[in-house]
From TrEMBL, chains A, B:
<dbReference type="InterPro" id="IPR029056">
    <property type="entry name" value="Ribokinase-like"/>
</dbReference>
<dbReference type="InterPro" id="IPR011611">
    <property type="entry name" value="PfkB_dom"/>
</dbReference>
<dbReference type="Pfam" id="PF00294">
    <property type="entry name" value="PfkB"/>
</dbReference>
<protein>
    <submittedName>
        <fullName>Bifunctional hydroxymethylpyrimidine kinase/phosphomethylpyrimidine kinase</fullName>
    </submittedName>
</protein>
<keyword id="KW-0418">Kinase</keyword>
<keyword id="KW-0808">Transferase</keyword>
<feature type="domain" description="Carbohydrate kinase PfkB">
    <location>
        <begin position="21"/>
        <end position="280"/>
    </location>
</feature>
<dbReference type="InterPro" id="IPR002173">
    <property type="entry name" value="Carboh/pur_kinase_PfkB_CS"/>
</dbReference>
<dbReference type="GO" id="GO:0005829">
    <property type="term" value="C:cytosol"/>
</dbReference>
<dbReference type="GO" id="GO:0016301">
    <property type="term" value="F:kinase activity"/>
</dbReference>
Length: 307, 307
């Protein structure tokens, strides 16, 4: 099975209470495709970078078996750049710089051999860009997962509504779900969002885990209480990549399997938070992933109770 | 098995986006003992009310099999009164009135036949009052559970440290755990708090559930995503009463059983939130409780995963 993602490939400059970085590799498509590929899924990305994007990062992504046929390189352009500073609680951050650069005129082109990908992950981008990628697919993917953010709700609501009508799963955070639905209760919010199109609604709650809704079914995947959150950048994208990647790998899109997928996503996201950028994700091996999955099992496991 | 609780019995006047109440029955000991008694545990309370406390509430508590031998009635005093208004999100509230009244000079007396209770639940009160009750026990209870709040950390830190040294379980919310430990990471906070005395640390996170820590073991009980939270007053006390009551009923104080206990507590707490005051808790029957427990099982259940 194969997974294609469209999203940003970026330079991030980060500061957290634990230190700071220079410009390092970031972007939603980077995290999504690394997580998916790590699960052994044939993974490709559609994105754009500038001539300043180092060969070293290209090599890194290739070494992680991410197919870069869909990565446009604009020789005389500059790569999308985001600079952020996390507060002491690591839950809130300030954006210091956003330079769209080559992203401003990005017109995604899906490579011919990716037009039949099984799973399509639409990373957080302008809804028209997301729709443009979906339209280029020759066959409707078995599963289309979409991530978005409040920014697009504010300034591209109609376009967002048009694209989410055609996706299977939406993955957003609690604040965004409340804004999108006008409902405070997440159960009500999920129901309203599902009525906009996606049969399955994932509501991410950061350090409080994630909720998975489908019809009247609901599943709660906790986040692992961590010794220290070092840098949460990319956690949400890693989560989405782990979720979509697990479904692609297993070729089972049932609600039961989505529960497992959400735990894979949560486990991988917790790994991403342990170091700056993609460092801990790119060094994760199967034993460490299994150990992490085991921590989740223990965190949620209890023996049958009856009153 | 028997459970004795010390805590407030109060008048609450509540306002939420869904309506308002006159003065109704409230107080930590009320919720704790109702939850415990509902699980079939022999339950007694130590508290104080004024001459204005209506016979109707006495009868209600008695009808729920709560032993009131330890309820002092100060004929010429007034019952503790709290008035609060919840904001639209139901997660934050303003205290409009706090009248300590008879609580100001409360000197708890444990009835002779309760001095050998199996489980002792120290509801949120001045740490000296909590310590006074613990000292009156003839035999060290099999389990002592303590609830407290930031107010006592601010103004009675030494007394709080003295009493928590002697308890087995502490139940506090995330903000309080962070204040108490000076650690943002809840895992680190729990470790520091455990070093102050209680072997088991429960950190309540409101709509995000609760964490149970013991040594390096951790368990996450989610809160049920509710259609509507009507009134969260008493949810934390109901949780503590359900937790302690379940342990008293089963006479099993292992970590495994505490996991089950925390789910019972969460299930009962979700019931309390459905109506104002104790109304929904006092009308809960065994079938409805089992249905609610089943919702929790579904919320957390997933089939084995392996990578």
């Amino acid at each position: 099975m194969s997974l294609l993602t469209v999203g940003t490939v970026a330079f991030d400059k980060l500061e957290s209470p634990f230190g700071k970085t220079d410009k390092i590799l970031g972007g939603a498509a980077t995290y999504i495709s690394m997580a998916s590929s790590l699960l052994g899924v044939e993974t490709g990305l559609v994105s754009v970078v500038g001539g300043d994007f180092p060969e070293e990062y290209i090599d890194l992504l290739k070494s992680k078996n991410v197919d870069l046929a869909g990565l446009e390189i604009v020789a005389d352009g500059k790569t999308f750049f985001w600079e952020g500073k996390y507060h002491n609680d690591l839950n809130t951050r300030d954006t210091l710089t956003t330079e769209l650069n080559v992203l401003e005129t990005f017109n995604p082109v899906v490579p011919q051999n990716w037009k039949n990908a099984d799973v399509l992950m639409l990373g957080n981008l302008h809804p028209l860009v997301q729709a443009g990628v979906l339209e280029q697919m020759e066959n409707r993917p078995k599963l289309v997962v979409l991530d978005t953010m409040n920014f697009w709700m504010d300034c591209a609501w109609e376009e967002l509504m048009a694209v989410i009508k055609n996706v299977d799963v939406i993955s957003i955070n609690d604040e965004e779900a409340r804004q999108m639905s006008g409902e405070y209760s997440l159960r009500k919010a999920a129901r309203k969002i599902a009525a906009m199109g996606p049969k399955t609604v994932i509501i991410k709650k950061g350090e409080h885990g994630a909720l998975l809704f489908q019809g009247e079914q609901v599943f709660y995947a906790p986040a692992l209480p961590m010794e220290e959150v070092f840098d949460p950048t990319g956690a949400g994208d890693t989560f989405a990549g782990g979720f979509s990647g697990y479904l692609a790998k297993t070729n089972d899109f049932s609600f039961e399997n989505m529960k497992r997928a959400i735990i894979f996503g949560s486990a991988l996201a917790s790994v991403t938070c342990e170091k700056f950028g993609t460092e801990s994700l790119q060094n994760l091996d199967v034993d460490a992933l299994n150990a992490r999955l085991n921590e989740f099992r223990e965190l949620m496991r209890f023996e049958q109770i009856e009153f």
